[in-house]
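User: Here's a chain of 445 residues. Predict its fold as tokens.
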Amino acid sequence: MSPFFLFAVIILAVVAMVIAISKFNVHPFIVLVVVAVAVGLVCGLDTVTVVDTVKSGFGDILASIGIVILCGTIIGTILEKTGAALTMANTILKVVGKKRSVITMGAMGYVTGIPVFCDSGFVVLSPISRALAAQSNTSLAVMATALSGGLYATHCLVPPTPGPIAMAGTLEADMGLTILVGLLLSIPAVAVVILYATKISSKIDIPANPEYTIEELTAKYGKLPGALHSFSPILLPIVLIGISSVASLPALPFGDGAVYAFLNFIGNPVIALMLGVFLSLTLIPASERGNTLKWVTQGVTDSAAILAITGAGGSFGAILKLLPIADATQGLLATGLGVLVPFTIAMILKLAMGASTVAMITTASMVAPMLENMGLTSPLGRVFVVMAIGAGSMVASHANDSYFWVVSQFSDMKTGEAYRCQTGMTAVMGVTVVAILYVLSLFLF
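Assistant: Prediction complete.
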């Protein structure tokens, strides 16, 4: 099979995928499975191999990260429903201070975006954004941009958000290292967001018109869980996964006996996130115990589409691994483009389809066979590819992205104002992240 033919098939497959999803509103799950089958058949794989590969690819990726995605979604739902997300936001407000209102909103988004979906997080925290904007006599556009960007940074870069989890599973990246690098890389991303909010979004004057003060908003929820209790369902899994990664270092700092086995067990993402779920259940007050099943079911329901898309992405990736993509891309990827390749693919898919998670999963499936040619097969190299795809999936949130409309509608932005605030900010953030990655990769790989 000639490289030209292979590239043509893959490009046509991506174009067909984009058209089916964005123009005809076909669900990404159906599109990915159909495209996987079509690419396999067109490239000469026999029918039995195609069907078996689609099934095994779907099952393998969900066996790896399916439970983790479910647990992460359940935790996020319970944090939102119990008011724990609001407690987390209020804690950050106390630490950073109302006088540093823009930094406070960015930090709120950064932390809340780890366990809670960015759109849900924005809805929950937008009343605080309004109240703080009124209190500091700042345009709501500034606060909304800072909050939106903070949420988006960790949503695209840090597990246990579904997109980064799915990418780490597909690319076989170490989960603990992915979390660590994602958390660190999100800091300059949020810093750029804060700068953008104060320099660009500040030119747009949107009155805050708050319905409640921060104190009234807190009182409306009734008795909220404590700060440590609220943070614990997400902090515990991160700490356990991190300790497990440290225990598995070549130096074996905890030895290779019973302690090592125990730390590896509780630090396995499945066990760590399950413990996080159990902790989150303790946040539900006695008066709301009757809603426990309802809230857990909502978390499971919210994750269903993501699981289906993740599995279909695994099918597509499994088909691509059977094709001679590595040989076909050897010359191209030897040019030193490195992390720019996955970034560009994710950016194109994001711009065309709108959904960051779909762009992440699809891109991860496409670049997995190329890692060796990119020189990024080391543990850190795989994490860098995850981060590059996450950065690409940020560029840029515009009219075909549901998050764009959540931000604009809950911030009283006109469409043109939302393009300046949301679209411009997400583009700058993604480019900043990949620029940092590219410079670091020149020294590390």
